[in-house]
Amino acid sequence: MEQDTITAISTPLGEGAIAIVRLSGDHAITIANKIFQGQDLVEVSSHTIHYGKIIDPIKEEIIEEVMISVMRAPKTFTKEDVVEINCHGGIASVNRLLELVLANGARLAEPGEFTKRAFLNGRIDLSQAEAVMDLIRAKTDKAMNVALKQLDGKLSTLVNQLRQKLIETVAHVEVNIDYPEYDDVEEMSNHMLREKTEEVYREVEQLLSMAKQGKILREGIATAIIGRPNVGKSSLLNALVQETKAIVTDIPGTTRDVIEEYVNIRGIPLRLVDTAGIRETEDIVEKIGVERSRQALKQADLILLVLNNGEELTEEDRKLFEAIKDLEYIVIVNKTDLPTKLDRQEVEQLAGKQKVITTALIEDKGIDALEAAISDTFFEGELDSGDLSYVSNVRHIQLLQQTLKALDDAKDAIDANMPIDLVQIDVTRAWELLGEIVGDTVQDSLIDQLFSQFCLGK
Ligand code: GDP
Ligand code: ZN
């Protein structure tokens, strides 16, 4: 079957030094050849790169100097013929190049269509395709590591092992039923089923418990900085932002825009939320009242409440404590360079089991302790990319939860001495649910929807 040839700009639009227009499909090479002045691309060997000029064949006009990579199927990202045209990327010239490619027989790719083809052509499985998307969006190196592991197939391997265990058990039980060599086939099968189900159950549970951390790495900790005027909220924000380094990657096709509202704390992305202006707010309680500010603040995973060490605690401070009392927060006693007027004991008491950190932001003091406190709050100790979660994707988390439920049903059925074929329905369901993670048992409509979330050109 002939695959139409798709194309898109596969680097972020903007000021980048180079831009890449990518083509994939049966005519990728011939289309590129029509507009290329240089070597005959149809004749060159696969996986080679060529310097030349792009010409408009109709106007016979030179558009750009480029480097063209020619990669023939099947050893390419999509398993189709792929051509990448590297040019110096002003927006206008890249667009002109893209138009020329379109005019010569390619079709504009839908968002995610390159990755979708890689999936449909069996180059990667669904969890790996999703990892490509995560990689593009990763905010910190650690989040990127999670995505890379997933792309590497680590999650797929784990999930496939679990599925294998389940299917073997089902097969085994069926054999036992069909060829009863023992008197107590039923009992033995039940016992084995119970054991295997329990085993897989525990492993899925483990994957899930790591998933929360993965999700935080992927989406960031929604963080709000609150406090009275002049306590040092802006200073804190600046100190946090200074810690942030832009992330660049040299993995092809994953150039990412740096997203400014994220700060990187020891590899954990903090997403500074600004719902109803609570990111850095002085009079949130004043303005909307304790109850409503509590609602607004609920949007945050973490609240940083800043107090002034050089002043006594005020009614306003106490109201802020009241507004966040059931939420996750860290108290920052700032301006410790000033003589202490704040009643620290009262602060400790109000904070209860939440952490209290002291800082003198004006002297750059205390940021380390704050970072450690944030890291501890969400990860209980140092974050080690060696044992990071492979699961970070909400879809995967939901499927794992449903798998647990199915396995739980199976265990209940076994314990209730239900007929073995009823138990098998639940086990098979668990097998199918795990299959959806890697895309083995997944619906077409879901696939379309998943890939439509991708960026253009990936
Ligand atoms: P915000 O109104 O809560 O955002 O507070 P700012 O960050 O704008 O700080 C208010 C003032 O307090 C500024 O003049 C800061 O330089 C000063 N400030 C911030 N942190 C400290 C500190 O640790 N010690 C002292 N003495 N002054 C600080
Ligand atoms: Zn401020």
From TrEMBL:
GO cellular component terms, A-Z: cytosol
Residues binding GTP: 230-235, 249-255, 274-277
Residues annotated for Mg(2+) binding in this entry: S234, T255
Residue ranges constituting the TrmE-type G domain according to the UniProt record: 220-379
Signal peptide: none
Binding residues for (6S)-5-formyl-5,6,7,8-tetrahydrofolate: R22, E84, R123, K458
EC number, as in UniProt: 3.6.-.-
Top-level division of the source organism's lineage: Bacteria
Cofactor note: Binds 1 potassium ion per subunit.
Gene Ontology MF, one: GTP binding
Tagged with keyword Hydrolase: yes
Binding site for K(+): N230, T249, I251, T254
Cofactor names: K(+)
Location(s) in or outside the cell: Cytoplasm
UniProtKB keywords: Cytoplasm, GTP-binding, Hydrolase, Magnesium, Metal-binding, Nucleotide-binding, Potassium, tRNA processing
InterPro entries, per the entry: G_TrmE (IPR031168), GTP-bd (IPR006073), GTP-bd_TrmE_N (IPR018948), GTPase_MnmE (IPR004520), MnmE_dom2 (IPR027368), MnmE_helical (IPR025867), P-loop_NTPase (IPR027417), Small_GTP-bd (IPR005225)
GO BP of this protein: tRNA methylation; tRNA wobble uridine modification
The keyword GTP-binding belongs to this UniProt entry's keyword annotation: yes
Subunit structure: Homodimer. Heterotetramer of two MnmE and two MnmG subunits.
Record's function text: Exhibits a very high intrinsic GTPase hydrolysis rate. Involved in the addition of a carboxymethylaminomethyl (cmnm) group at the wobble position (U34) of certain tRNAs, forming tRNA-cmnm(5)s(2)U34.
Similarity comment: Belongs to the TRAFAC class TrmE-Era-EngA-EngB-Septin-like GTPase superfamily. TrmE GTPase family.
Protein name: tRNA modification GTPase MnmE
Annotated source species: Gracilibacillus dipsosauri
